[in-house]
Design goal:
The chain has 542 residues and is α+β, with helices and mostly antiparallel strands. It contains 18 helices and 17 strands. The strands form 7 sheets. The protein has a 4-stranded mixed sheet with strand order 5-17-9-8. The longest helix has 39 residues. It is globular, with a radius of gyration of 30 Å.
Length: 542
């Protein structure tokens, strides 16, 4: 950092911008900032000063600034940890003064830290736990981070590997490791983890052994998107079970390869995993897969991508092929694919309905069926047309509607699956059971919004995407906007250009029908002057 550009904190009064000289009784003299210096009175001032620094021009200076910037990042990480702990204590004192039970104190703190750091609530909880351990139990590691000897990630490794220890033992291990003396200079992540594990085991072997035995309680299966319409299916298992599963899949693949199967070993292992889990050769049991696409993508070969809830955006061609020719996994494995029977709510094709139903039933037993539910969205913004309910609980149609609109938890920066269909303005505060007052939330975020000091309200306007305003106990405000649906324009300019291109190509219905197959027929649907029709394809593999 160029010291000629930033004034030292020791030469300025951060609070008042003035300084006393000599006798304390002397009058306060204003501080004169020399030319070329910048007053640093807050972190915001530091950010502005850093933004004004010129970029070095030659190689050595560039590398020096990379290293200096890394030290600055470490210092900022240490300061964030101290501030997080101070904020936690401040909130607990405020909650105690308000009469909150001891067991309830501290709730919502991690969520506020997550919002401030633009992280998910789960990540916010881990960051707060890391800060507590670093500040209160590991002073040597904290000093190493402040000195730039350890970055935040490597400090996290030390905190993680000593989590099973008591506070006293963790502090002793921290002293043994002596990270602030440069003991880890040149060490990689694995070396740091190994050193921390060895020190923890020497200090308390029983706790380390118990931690390994309790780890089996954390076994789970997770799914996350991968490129090119693939997914990562991950299983966290005890080592004996994991090795046994892998060995069995390997044995099966080797047997099939020896029998002449042309698929690779990896393909055979993956196909066997799917088949043995679902119990069917094609890998599909009676599960529902929802696919959201525009009518132009489905019927006119448009290139607008489709949306697969739980996965994300998928190519238009892939979505059409899934609807018309069957699952790609069946084609890749050499098994015949069946053309699905199609049932379109409200817009069926020609032929006798009973004959089509019979034919579809035969094909359903051989392949899978497709249902089309119509969604109506406002042009440009992609806002879904709402339906209302007079009951407290959201109807099945409304829940499908919210799932299609929100995709994931609507709390800012949270991408957890939707578990609760919640009233933004609570029911007990006369919040209506409407689509504009509904939101999909994960369980943790739904419980957080009910804590004292938290307030949520819808802030949407007609023709725009659904917006939720969230206020925290510290009076900070955050907004969550529903993600765009396929076919919607991200901004007004693109929407106007799209409207011009659509003129004369395919007319839009002036208003949606009074009731659609997507929503319960006993509720009214608000009319929009121009409404685009899109189709939601729900696939049921039999």
């Amino acid at each position: 950092m160029d010291s000629s550009r930033i004034a030292s904190l020791n030469t300025t009064d951060i609070g008042g911008g003035s300084r006393r000289h000599g006798n304390p009784s002397d009058p306060i003299q204003p501080v004169v900032i020399p030319s070329g210096f910048v007053r640093i009175g807050s972190v915001r001032d530091l950010i502005d000063a850093l933004a004004s620094l010129p970029v070095p021009t030659d190689g050595p200076e560039l590398i020096d600034e990379v290293g200096d910037s890394e030290e600055l990042k470490c210092l900022i990480a240490a300061r964030q940890a101290r501030i997080a702990v101070a904020f936690d204590l401040d909130q607990r004192r405020s909650q105690a003064a308000a009469g909150v039970p001891v067991a309830e104190q501290g709730k919502g703190v991690a969520a506020q830290i997550a919002l401030a750091r633009r992280e998910s609530p789960a990540r916010g909880g881990r960051l707060l736990g890391f800060a507590r351990a670093l500040v209160t139990e590991m002073p040597h590691t904290m000093a190493a981070v402040e000195a730039g000897l350890l970055n935040e990630w490597r400090a996290t490794l030390l905190v993680r590997e000593t989590a099973c220890l008591s506070a006293a033992d963790r502090c002793a291990v921290d002293e043994d490791l002596a990270a602030d003396t440069g003991a880890f200079d040149g060490a990689g992540d694995r070396q740091i983890v190994a050193a921390a594990r060895a020190a923890a085991y020497r200090r308390d072997p029983r706790s380390v052994t118990q931690r390994a035995s309790h780890a089996a309680a954390d076994r789970r299966v997770s799914l996350r998107p991968a490129p090119d319409t693939m997914t990562y299916l991950t299983a966290l298992l005890p080592v004996a079970q994991g090795v046994a599963v892998h060995a069995e899949l390997t044995r099966h693949a080797d047997t099939r390869r020896a029998a002449g199967d042309e698929r690779s070993r990896g393909q055979l292992m993956a196909d066997a995993l799917v088949e043995r889990t679902t119990g069917t050769p094609g890998g599909f049991s009676r599960v529902e897969v929802q696919l959201v696409m525009t009518d132009r993508t489905l019927f006119q070969g448009d290139a607008e991508p489709a949306l697969l809830p739980g996965y994300g955006i998928v190519p238009a061609g892939w979505a059409r092929n899934l609807l018309t020719t069957g699952p790609a996994s069946e084609q890749a494995s050499g098994q015949p694919s069946q053309r699905p029977g199609t049932q379109c709510g409200g817009s069926g094709g020609g032929g006798n309905a009973a004959e089509r139903s019979s034919e579809d039933g035969i094909e359903a037993r051989q392949g899978f069926q497709v249902w089309l539910r119509r969604l109506y969205t406002a042009p440009g913004s992609g806002e879904l047309v709402a339906v209302e309910s007079r009951t407290r609980l959201f109807t099945a149609g409304q829940r499908r509607f919210i799932q299609a609109r929100d995709h994931l938890c609507r709390a800012p920066y949270c991408d957890a699956p939707i578990r609760h269909y919640d009233h933004i303005i609570p029911w007990y505060k006369d919040g209506p059971t409407t689509l504009s007052n509904g939101a999909g939330l994960c369980e943790a975020c739904n419980h957080t919004k009910e804590l004292p000091g938290w307030h949520t309200r819808p802030r949407s306007s007609p023709g725009s995407r659904h917006v939720i305003e969230i206020s925290t106990p510290t009076s900070h405000t955050y907004h969550s906007t529903a993600p765009p649906l396929p076919g919607s324009s991200p901004n007004k300019r693109e929407h106007q250009r799209e409207r011009k291109q659509e003129t004369g190509r395919h007319p839009l219905p002036p208003t949606p029908p009074a009731a659609s197959s997507f929503a319960p027929e006993d509720h009214n649907t608000p009319a929009y002057p121009y409404t685009r029709q899109s189709r939601r394809a729900q696939l049921l593999f039999a």
